Amino acid sequence: MASKRTTNQAIALANETVLPIFLVFTALFTAVACLLGVQVAQGKDPVLGEAKIVRPQRKVLVRKVVVVKKVTMILTPRLLPAQLALALLPPGPPEART
User: What residue segments make up the domains of the chain, in order of their start?
Assistant: First the structure.
């Protein structure tokens, strides 16, 4: 019987001390979470360090340059051999050619 009384007393003692310990740890956790929340809201995150001012990045302008070669062909009518010979003669009066 003595062992039953000690176990019952131990259980009763354990039940009486669980709630205050739970409440103390809950209060401490809540306090630490609130302090960290206030620090983060102020920009003083203990993990990331001080808040840094972020400058917006410059916009990069990308231009596509298209190079087009324009080829112009001047078509001349085909000359007959006699006309070709006349075209190759130096300019001048016809009397000087003979």
Answer: 1-50
